[in-house]
């Protein structure tokens, strides 16, 4: 199958420049690729249709931004790298090689770096593409499958079918990707729990190392939300969605996948280290339009549109607003992010930021949550049970 804009041969592996000596703090790096083949009906992410002219502009600006941050942060040590979007698999390979070279020249990649890239089955459909990704240093692939049923893929506005998704996975394996994650969605219009379990069985038959399972959420200003408002589709009732979450998680655990975060499951040793870094509150640098960075107590958000992004990079980000994260915000984020994970909230870290002991300062709330089997407290950490995960938003909002 042809790639969207024709086959672009993988560039020959270049001799790498010697890695710069790391001087700055360790950091996670995210590269936002704001291009998609078309807009999925449920999507509220920042992305636009791919075209060569805008892409060339994006590439030039991205390379300048990499050099700027590498210099500003004194060649920081990169612990994980993640290309997300958008659709990173639309990236022409020669351009991707340039970006990876620029990252290596301006940042210091840690040994054993986890380097992930997202791909969609409509734009990543030949084995040479995956071989090229491996040669650039990517070692983890996140594949946007969403469903193994064509009717649902059409309803979601995905530009691929189920057969293409399976073929893409097979090609990635043939190329040598040993760490592949599949994205799936549940709670789709007309879906019942047994249907969702069939979807998971189709996924498990492929033996991926990792699965991300997201409930479909109607986002404002999307085509799907308008269709729901017009009554063209109906989402499953909340109770049915809860059953999908619980039975789906039980099934995946019975197949050897650890439920390590509300929406994420991994075989032993394959949890996504990049996302774990976010949940642990590590520093991260976001590159590309609309990307967000948190470095120390400061949070920056890159402009969303190309002209403003380009102007910000050319002006060395002078005058770009940033948010100073106060202790209250950091506390909220600590609770919000860590309670999504199986490790849960470090009560010592909470005490340090809040200046109080959570268990002692909220005894009635803690007792209610425990009696209803919504939380557990073990070895200085508070985490949500499966039932607690179902109502995580209301528990977290009570705690913050
Ligand atoms: S491929 Fe992903 S980012 Fe692009 S429109 Fe679809 S859901 Fe949104």
Structure description:
With 400 residues, this protein is of the alpha/beta class. The chain folds into 2 domains: 27-278, pyruvate-formate lyase- activating enzyme (Alpha-Beta Horseshoe), CATH 3.80.30; 344-399, no CATH class. The protein has 16 helices and 17 strands. α1 (52-72) runs parallel beside α10 (306-314) and α3 (127-136) crosses α5. The longest helix is centred in the N-terminal third of the chain and has 21 residues, at 52-72. Iron/sulfur cluster (SF4) binds next to loops.
Summarize the structure.
The chain has two domains: 27-278, tm_1862 like domain (pyruvate-formate lyase- activating enzyme, Alpha-Beta Horseshoe); 344-399, no CATH class. 41% of the residues lie in helices and 21% in strands. The protein has 16 helices and 17 strands.
């Amino acid at each position: 199958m042809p790639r969207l804009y024709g086959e672009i041969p993988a560039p020959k592996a270049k001799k790498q420049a010697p890695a710069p000596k790391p001087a700055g703090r360790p950091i996670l790096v995210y590269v936002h690729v704001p291009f998609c083949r078309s807009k999925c009906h449920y999507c509220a992410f920042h992305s636009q249709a791919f075209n060569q002219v805008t892409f060339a502009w994006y590439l030039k600006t991205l390379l300048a931004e990499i050099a700027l941050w590498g210099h500003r942060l004194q060649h920081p040590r990169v612990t994980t790298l993640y290309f997300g979007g958008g659709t990173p698999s639309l990236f022409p390979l020669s351009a991707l090689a340039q970006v990876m070279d620029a990252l290596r020249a301006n940042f210091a990649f840690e040994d054993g770096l986890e380097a992930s890239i997202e791909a969609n089955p409509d734009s990543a459909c030949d084995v040479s593409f995956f071989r090229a990704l491996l040669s650039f240093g990517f070692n983890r692939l996140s594949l946007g499958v969403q469903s193994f049923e064509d009717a649902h893929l059409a309803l979601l506005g995905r530009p691929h079918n189920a057969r293409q998704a399976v073929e893409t996975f097979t090609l990635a394996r043939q190329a040598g990707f040993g760490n592949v994650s599949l994205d799936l969605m549940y709670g789709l219009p007309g879906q019942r729990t047994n249907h969702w379990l069939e979807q998971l069985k189709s996924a498990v038959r492929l033996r991926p190392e990792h699965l991300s399972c997201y409930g479909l959420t109607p986002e404002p200003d999307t085509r799907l939300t308008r269709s729901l408002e017009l009554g063209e589709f109906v989402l499953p009732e909340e109770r049915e969605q809860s059953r999908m979450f619980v039975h789906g998680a039980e099934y995946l655990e019975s197949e050897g996948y650890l439920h390590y975060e509300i929406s994420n499951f991994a075989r032993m040793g394959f949890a996504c280290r990049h996302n774990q870094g976010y949940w642990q509150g590590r520093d991260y640098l976001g590159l590309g339009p609309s990307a967000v960075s948190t470095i120390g107590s400061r949070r920056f958000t890159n402009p969303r549109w190309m002209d403003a992004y380009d102007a910000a990079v050319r002006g060395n980000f002078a005058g770009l607003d940033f948010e100073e994260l106060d202790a209250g915000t950091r506390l909220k984020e600590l609770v919000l992010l860590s309670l999504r994970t199986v490790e849960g909230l470090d009560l010592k870290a909470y005490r340090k930021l809040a200046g109080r002991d959570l268990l002692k300062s909220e005894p009635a709330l803690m007792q209610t949550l425990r009696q209803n089997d919504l939380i557990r407290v073990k070895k200085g950490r508070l985490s949500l049970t499966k039932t607690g995960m179902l109502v995580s938003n209301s528990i977290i909002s009570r705690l913050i």
